[in-house]
Amino acid sequence: MAQNDSNVTVVESDGPAEQAGEAVDNAASATVDAADKAAEKTAEAAGEAAEESAEAADAAADQAEQAADAAGDAMDEATETDTEEVAEGTPVEGQIFEQSADTYLASTLLDATVFNAADEEVGDVNDMIITSDGKIEGVVIGVGGFLGVGEKNVAIELSRLEMTQDEDGDTTFMADLTAEELKAAPEFRTAEDAASESEAAAASASAGSTMTTTTGASTPTN
Known about the structure:
This protein is α+β, with helices and mostly antiparallel strands. It is built from four helices and eight strands, in the order E-E-H-H-E-E-E-E-E-E-H-H.
């Protein structure tokens, strides 16, 4: 308060500067409160988001574990099915149960004796030539020699031979050929024989070429 000359007390009001300061203080206080509340809400939201992410991760892990278990069960079932024992006597597709009367076993054809029309023995069956579709194209007959020594193989088409059975029930072949004709016929060569001969011929040609080159080389003079 201030006194004038007539001793009258005069109450002076706050100035504009003081009012502005109070306003600034109030605004700062409000800003701090708002910031605190915003920070608190942000922390709460972050915590809730983290909790939801953790729950989602746990749920995904549970689903993955369930899927793995289901895959393991399926594999176990498949393994059990594959290893399931087949009942005795269960036929398989394409199975032949009994040899028919008009068929022959290869074991009975091998070593079968070959006769000619004069009932002379001209050789024995050493092998058979079978096509890729399972048909017998011909038989390989061992002719000449004695007890396999000096014997050679001659292949004859099956159409030139007739399968018969002797009085003992053994399978034999009848051929309209003489022993002399078979002995004079060219020898049968297998694919392995042909390959070996080709390799030997190539090696011989290579060796001959090398020898010719060496022989034809000039001798240097001193």
